[in-house]
Specification:
Strand content: 15-25%
Number of strands: 10
Shape: globular
Radius of gyration: 21 Å
Order of helices and strands: HEHEHEHEHEHEHEHEEHHEH
CATH topology of the largest domain: D-Maltodextrin-Binding Protein, domain 2
Helix content: 40-55%
Number of domains: 2
Number of helices: 11
Distance between the termini: 32 Å
CATH architecture of the largest domain: 3-Layer(aba) Sandwich
CATH superfamily of the largest domain: Bordetella uptake gene, domain 1
Largest sheet: 10 strands, mixed
CATH class of the largest domain: Alpha Beta
């Protein structure tokens, strides 16, 4: 998907454009900031052009006119999102900096690195979770299985012989296969790659036999019949594959794998500014064009406010931190 520019021309700002029903205490600070011409900075901790970046630009294009203030998307990639997260952790708590954060930044990195330059619990205030990606269990057509039960039986009869790819050690895809295999008491050979594209290429070629794969990364493979989805690792059936049953429907509940992204601000940001951005994000993910574009990426727009978002982060930590530590994965260089 082509990169889209996240900058908008500076709009004319009035109290009406900021929302007639807003309390003056909330509207006035936003109005003052917009009149100074200072843009809000939206940090993406990954390179331009990826799903995180594209979705951030979709959101900021929808939010800026409602906010009455320009928004600049600032890409700061590196160290599994730690560079961008650290930048926001050291920014002023004035509501002028937002971080697009995934569960890697907020959860996985706590166990994947011995030391982080930021504290996921203390440095940030959750604003809103706005999108999630669900995974599918997919196999190469040569593997003689077409549902999860057949796959488990096939692997059990051939311990460590079936190869399962992932975009990298410690990725959500890797963690999904590790948890699935442990709970199903099966053993496979994990083949990590440097990114989703080479992993999908080798799955299509039959070099590896299976993987947990999000729709966005595997769409071309699925549509070309070079990879076969055999189960959806989601709570509900996927919009793109309404006839594909979930792992729970196939008799394996508790296997919901994917990734989610949300917005954070610096801890200590005034509640009124957090609430204002939460409201704007909620409006953006209900915008028809934003919904359409997200769905084209295989993403599901959602909206969880600050309290629900914090609960989601804590639930993810309870699930994944013990597994990462048990696996002994460490990404320090």
């Amino acid at each position: 998907m082509p990169k889209r520019d996240g900058l908008l021309d500076r709009p004319t700002v009035t109290r009406r454009s900021l929302g007639l029903g807003m309390m003056g205490a909330l509207a006035a600070p936003a109005l003052v900031r917009a009149q100074t011409g200072r843009p809000l900075r939206w940090v993406v901790a990954y390179p331009p052009g990826g799903a995180t970046d594209v979705i951030a630009r979709l959101l900021t294009n929808a939010i800026a006119p409602r906010l009455g203030q320009p928004i600049v998307v600032d890409n700061r990639p590196g160290a599994a999102g730690s560079i961008g997260a650290d930048n926001v952790a050291k920014s002023p708590a004035d509501g002028q900096t937002v971080l697009s954060a995934d569960m890697g930044i907020l959860v996985y990195n706590r166990a994947l690195y011995r030391q982080l330059p930021y504290d996921p619990d203390k440095d940030f205030a959750p604003v809103a979770l706005y999108v999630q990606f669900s995974m599918l269990l997919a196999v190469h057509p040569s593997l003689p299985v077409r549902d999860a039960r057949e796959f488990i039986a096939y692997v059990k009869a051939r311990p460590n012989q079936v190869t399962m790819a992932s975009p990298g050690v410690g990725s959500p895809h890797h963690l999904a296969l590790e948890r699935f295999c442990r709970l199903m008491d099966i053993r496979v050979t994990h083949v990590p790659y440097r990114g989703a594209a080479p992993a999908v290429n080798d799955l299509m070629a039959g070099t590896v036999q299976a993987m947990f794969l999000d729709y966005a990364s595997g769409a071309a493979a699925y549509q070309g019949g070079k990879a076969i989805p055999i189960a959806a690792a989601s709570a509900d059936r996927l919009r793109e594959y309404p006839n594909l049953t979930t792992l729970a429907e196939q008799g394996f509940p508790g296997h919901e794998y994917g990734s989610a992204q949300g917005a954070l601000m610096r801890a200590g940001t005034p509640d009124g500014l957090l609430q204002r951005m939460d409201t704007l994000i909620g409006e953006a993910v209900r915008d028809e064009e934003v919904v359409r574009r997200m769905q084209e990426l295989g993403a599901q727009p959602v909206h969880l406010g600050p309290a629900q978002y914090r609960d989601r982060i804590q639930a993810e930590a309870r699930t994944w931190l013990p597994l990462i530590r048990e696996l002994g994965i460490n990404l320090d260089t």
